[in-house]
C-alpha cells in the first residue's frame, strides 16, 4: 500500500498545519456525535462514505464507519489535530477496529504524525484487512515538545471495504489527555486575547514611527542574541513598543525608548560580516542609516547585523532541503476579534518573515519596503473583523506568490468568499469566463451548459467583479490571476444566482440554483493513472502515477511509440529522480536553488546545479509530450523541469503557476494560516521560474470552440506531434 500511504503523507502534511488546539471535551473520541471540528473528513467523498454509525459500535452509542462505494485506489476517513504543546515523554494512540471485506489490495490505516518530521506511522505495514470483529490497535511515539509544531491523528480506509473505529484513547505517559489537564501547557497564560492596544488615530508621523518599529522589532527578533534564545516574549515587547511610540510626545522620546530597549537586551560584540560566495542578493540594512536617530543608537543596531547563531528560537531550516521552518510563533487561537495591537503584530510578523526569508522578495508588487508603508495605516484603520480580514488578504496578495494565500477561512470573511457554489467549473478562456464542466445537481437538471460564456453575475459585469477582487487574490502572473478569478466567479452568497450569458451566439439570462458549501462535492475525476491511446501511445496522468506503477510496467512501456505525461495536476508521488532517470542517458543539470542561512538571513546564495539521470543505455528513446497549464504548480513544475532535460521531451500548453520551491508555513494571530515559497528555483542557466513559470516548447491554449466540442486541444496538439 505504498502508493496510498504517500498520497496520505501529502494530504496530512498540509492539513495538519491548519488545526487549532481544542478543549478536551470537544475531542469526540467516542464518535457518538456528528463529525464536526476538530474532526475533518479526508479523501474522495464521491467514493467513500464517512458517517457516525449508531447501529454498530464497540462502546457507548456510536462508532465511525468508513465504507467504499465503488472500486477505487483512493482513501476516505477523518483526521484531527491535537494540541502541539503536550507535555511528557511518550504518546500512545489506541483504537478499536472492526472491518468487513477489506480487499487484499486495501488496508485500514490508523495514523499518528508529529511534525516537523519527528514521527510518522499510519499502520500501512501491519496490513490490516479482511473481515474481523472488534480488535484493539495502538501506535506509540516519543514526544519532543521543544521541536513539535503539530500533532495529528487520522483514521481512514485505503482501497475497498468497510471499517468501523471506536473507543479512541490518547494517553501521555499513561494518562488519558481528556482527563489530565496537567498534560497541557495552560494556553490562557501564554496566549492573551487582548494586546492592550486599543484603536487609535493615526497620522503621517504616527504611521512612520510604526513603520520604523516594524523594521526594528523584526530586525531584533532575527538578529539579537537575547531574542534568539527564546526566553523573551517578543510579541509582548512589540505591544509595549507600540504603546511607547504612539504615545510619545516627540521623536526624541521615541529614540530614548529604543535606547532603553537595546540596553535592556544587553550589550553585544560587533560581529564581523561573513564572506559568502555565489550571492544572488544581499540583505539590505541601509534603512538603519535612514532612521531619524542619533549615530550612537544606529551604531548599536549595526553591531548586531551579522550575528552568528548555532540555532534560533524562531526559525530553522529543513534538513536536506533548506527552506525556512518558522517555529515557536504564538497562534493566539482564542482571540475573537483582533485589536489594533494584534493587527499590527500580524503585519510586522509576516512582513519580516518575507523580508528575511523569501527568496523572491525582489518580485513583490509594490516594492516590499513600500508594502510596509502602505499596510501600516490599512491595519490601523481595519477596525472591524471583515475589514481586517480583507486587509490581511491585501497584504498577502502583494507578495505575488501563488503559494501565498489565506488558507484558513475566518468567519468574518464568509460573505467575501461566498457560502454557495455554482454547479459548474469555470475557466478563463480566450479572455472570457467559460463554463468548462457541469457538476451534478439534486434534481438532475443543470441550467448551465458547457461552452456558456458568462457576461454578468448578480447584476455586475464580469469585468466589474474582477476589479472588485483583484487586490485580494494572488496575481503572480496572468495564468494564476485567471485561475483564482474563475474560482471567485463560482462562489455566491445566494442559493439562486442570476447570470447573464451568451449561448450559441445568443444573449440570455438564467437563474442558477447554487449548492451550499457544506453540501458541495467536487466533481469526479479520472481514476485511471495510465492508458493506451491509438497508435501505441501511452497516456499518463501524473496525479495518479506512483513509483510502484513505474516498477511494474517499465519493461512494457519501453516498447511504446510515444508518451504523454499530463502534468495539469499535482503529482501524487515524488518521481523526479525515478521517472527522470528513465528518460536520460547520463546525469544532466536541471535546477538550481537559492536559500538563506542562520548567519545572514535575507542574503541568498545560488546553489550548484542539481542533476537528474544516470549513465545508462537503457533509457526510453521515444518521443515524450508533457502537458501543462495554470494548474501546474510547485512540485508539478519541478517535475517538468526534470523531464524536459531529455532531448526527446517537448512541453505543450500554457503558462504555469510560477510557484516552484518548497513551501514554508506561517502562523498569524487568530489562527490565520498562510505560507510563502521557501526556496528560489532557477534553471541551470539561472533563469527564473518564480512568477514566470516553466519553459514551454509549444504554446497551446484551449478555445471556446474546442470546449464546446468536448476537445482537449492541448492533448490533441501533443498527439499530433507524437504521431508525426
From TrEMBL:
InterPro entries: ClpP/crotonase-like_dom_sf, Tail-specific_protease
Gene3D superfamilies: 2-enoyl-CoA Hydratase, Chain A, domain 1, Galactose-binding domain-like
The organism of origin for this protein: Sphingobacterium anhuiense
Descriptive protein name: S41 family peptidase
Source taxon at top rank: Bacteria
Domain (Tail specific protease): residue spans on this chain: 512-701
Organism lineage: Bacteria, Pseudomonadati, Bacteroidota, Sphingobacteriia, Sphingobacteriales
Amino acid at each position: 500500500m505504498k502508493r496510498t500511504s504517500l498520497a496520505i503523507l501529502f494530504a496530512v502534511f498540509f492539513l495538519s498545519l491548519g488545526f487549532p488546539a481544542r478543549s478536551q471535551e470537544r475531542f469526540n473520541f467516542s464518535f457518538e456525535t456528528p463529525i464536526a471540528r476538530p474532526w475533518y473528513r479526508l479523501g474522495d467523498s464521491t467514493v467513500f462514505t464517512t458517517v457516525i454509525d449508531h447501529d454498530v459500535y464497540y462502546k457507548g452509542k456510536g462508532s465511525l464507519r468508513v465504507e467504499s462505494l465503488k472500486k477505487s485506489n483512493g482513501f476516505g476517513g477523518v483526521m484531527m489535530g491535537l494540541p502541539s504543546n503536550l507535555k511528557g515523554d511518550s504518546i500512545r494512540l489506541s483504537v478499536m477496529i472492526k472491518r468487513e471485506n477489506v480487499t487484499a489490495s486495501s488496508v485500514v490505516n490508523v495514523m499518528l504524525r508529529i511534525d516537523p518530521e519527528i514521527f510518522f506511522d499510519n499502520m500501512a505495514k501491519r496490513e490490516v484487512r479482511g473481515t474481523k470483529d472488534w480488535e484493539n490497535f495502538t501506535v506509540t511515539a516519543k514526544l519532543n515538545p521543544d521541536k513539535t509544531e503539530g500533532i495529528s491523528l487520522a483514521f481512514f480506509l485505503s482501497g475497498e471495504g468497510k471499517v468501523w473505529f471506536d473507543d479512541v484513547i490518547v494517553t501521555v505517559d499513561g494518562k488519558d489527555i481528556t482527563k489530565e489537564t496537567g498534560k497541557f501547557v495552560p494556553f490562557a497564560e501564554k496566549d492573551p486575547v487582548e494586546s492592550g492596544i486599543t484603536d487609535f488615530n493615526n497620522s503621517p508621523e504616527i504611521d512612520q514611527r510604526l513603520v520604523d518599529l516594524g523594521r526594528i522589532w523584526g530586525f531584533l527578533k532575527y538578529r539579537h542574541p537575547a531574542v534568539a534564545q527564546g526566553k523573551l516574549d517578543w510579541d509582548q515587547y512589540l505591544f509595549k513598543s507600540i504603546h511607547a511610540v504612539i504615545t510619545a510626545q516627540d521623536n526624541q522620546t521615541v529614540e530614548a525608548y529604543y535606547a532603553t530597549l537595546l540596553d535592556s537586551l544587553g550589550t553585544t560584540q560587533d560581529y564581523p560580516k561573513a564572506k559568502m560566495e555565489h550571492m544572488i542578493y544581499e540583505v539590505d540594512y541601509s534603512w538603519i542609516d535612514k532612521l531619524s536617530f542619533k549615530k550612537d543608537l544606529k551604531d548599536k543596531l549595526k553591531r548586531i547585523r551579522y550575528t552568528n547563531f548555532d540555532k534560533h528560537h524562531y526559525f530553522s531550516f529543513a534538513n536536506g532541503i533548506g527552506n525556512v521552518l518558522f517555529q515557536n510563533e504564538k497562534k493566539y487561537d482564542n482571540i475573537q476579534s483582533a485589536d489594533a495591537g494584534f493587527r499590527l503584530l500580524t503585519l510586522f510578523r509576516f512582513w519580516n518573515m518575507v523580508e528575511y526569508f523569501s527568496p523572491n522578495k525582489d518580485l513583490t508588487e509594490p516594492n516590499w519596503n513600500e508594502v510596509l508603508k502602505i499596510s501600516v495605516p490599512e491595519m490601523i484603520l481595519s477596525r472591524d473583523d471583515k475589514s481586517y480580514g480583507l486587509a490581511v488578504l491585501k497584504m498577502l496578495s502583494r507578495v505575488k506568490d501563488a503559494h501565498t494565500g489565506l488558507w484558513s477561512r475566518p468567519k468574518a470573511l464568509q460573505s467575501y468568499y461566498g457560502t454557495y457554489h455554482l454547479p459548474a467549473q469555470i475557466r478563463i478562456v480566450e479572455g472570457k469566463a467559460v463554463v468548462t464542466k457541469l457538476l451534478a445537481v439534486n434534481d438532475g437538471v443543470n441550467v448551465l451548459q458547457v461552452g456558456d460564456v458568462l457576461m454578468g453575475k448578480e447584476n455586475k459585469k464580469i469585468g466589474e467583479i474582477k476589479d472588485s477582487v483583484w487586490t485580494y487574490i494572488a496575481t503572480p502572473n496572468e495564468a494564476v490571476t485567471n485561475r483564482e478569478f474563475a474560482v471567485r466567479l463560482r462562489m455566491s452568497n445566494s442559493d439562486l444566482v442570476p447570470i447573464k450569458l451568451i449561448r450559441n451566439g445568443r444573449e440570455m439570462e438564467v437563474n442558477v440554483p447554487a449548492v451550499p458549501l457544506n453540501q458541495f462535492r467536487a466533481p469526479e475525476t479520472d481514476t485511471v493513472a495510465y492508458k493506451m491511446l491509438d497508435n501505441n501511445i501511452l497516456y499518463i496522468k501524473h496525479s495518479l502515477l506512483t513509483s510502484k506503477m513505474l516498477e511494474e510496467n517499465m519493461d512494457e512501456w519501453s516498447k511504446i511509440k510515444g508518451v504523454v505525461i499530463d502534468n495539469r495536476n499535482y503529482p501524487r508521488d515524488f518521481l523526479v529522480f525515478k521517472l527522470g532517470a528513465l528518460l536520460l542517458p547520463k546525469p544532466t543539470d536541471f535546477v538550481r536553488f537559492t536559500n538563506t542561512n542562520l548567519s545572514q538571513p535575507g542574503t541568498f546564495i545560488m546553489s550548484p546545479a542539481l542533476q537528474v539521470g544516470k549513465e545508462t543505455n537503457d533509457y526510453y528513446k521515444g518521443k515524450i509530450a508533457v502537458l501543462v497549464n495554470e494548474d501546474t504548480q510547485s512540485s508539478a513544475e519541478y517535475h517538468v523541469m526534470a523531464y524536459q532535460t531529455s532531448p526527446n521531451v517537448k512541453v505543450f500548453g500554457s503558462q504555469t503557476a510560477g510557484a516552484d520551491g518548497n513551501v514554508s508555513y506561517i502562523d498569524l494571530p487568530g489562527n490565520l494560516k498562510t505560507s510563502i515559497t521557501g526556496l528560489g528555483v532557477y534553471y541551470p542557466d539561472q533563469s527564473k521560474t518564480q512568477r514566470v513559470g516553466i519553459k514551454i516548447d509549444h504554446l497551446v491554449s484551449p478555445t471556446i470552440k474546442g470546449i464546446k466540442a468536448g476537445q482537449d486541444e492541448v492533448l490533441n496538439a501533443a498527439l499530433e506531434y507524437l504521431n508525426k
